[in-house]
Amino acid sequence: MTDLTDYTLAQLKQLQARISKEVTKREIDKKAALLKRLRKLAREEGMELEELLGTEAKVTAQARSSKATKKSQTSTAKNAPLPVKYRNPNNLEQGWSGRGRKPAWFDAWMNNGGSLDALENAAQSKGRKKPITASPASAAPANDNTAALEASSPDVTSEATPNQ
């Protein structure tokens, strides 16, 4: 090995760049050679490599760069589901983050006079056993009169919710 203490900083940086390029070139060549061997082996068995992989495997002059790897890692993080901001009070399993297309239950709730606060409160208290049926119009204490309850609360589900 060469004694690096004799090199100037500029020479060391130039050497580092050359080494980096050579390492990348050798990695690409190694991958291309491996792909070639795998294709040959597949052909000997009467198949194509693309059939085995289920994709189009191409031998290119350049293999995946570190940019492509970083891009796939960041896109995975970006695709993580957002936390639920609004929840359907009549079916707490249905939620919406507030982004993207509005779900049908959200539009139905709003068209029937429901408030965003009720949906936000439903999202915060998902652990409740009973569905939230109160809307701003029915702040009176609940009684056994289900017709009054149904009239004051927007009905956003197609099937009736049982009273518990």
Automatic annotation (TrEMBL):
Keywords: Cytoplasm, DNA-binding
Keyword Cytoplasm: yes
Region (Disordered): 59-164
Composition bias, Low complexity: 59-78, 133-148
Domain DNA-binding protein H-NS-like C-terminal intervals: 76-121
Family to which this protein belongs: Belongs to the histone-like protein H-NS family.
Name assigned to this protein: Histone-like nucleoid-structuring protein
Organism: Thauera propionica
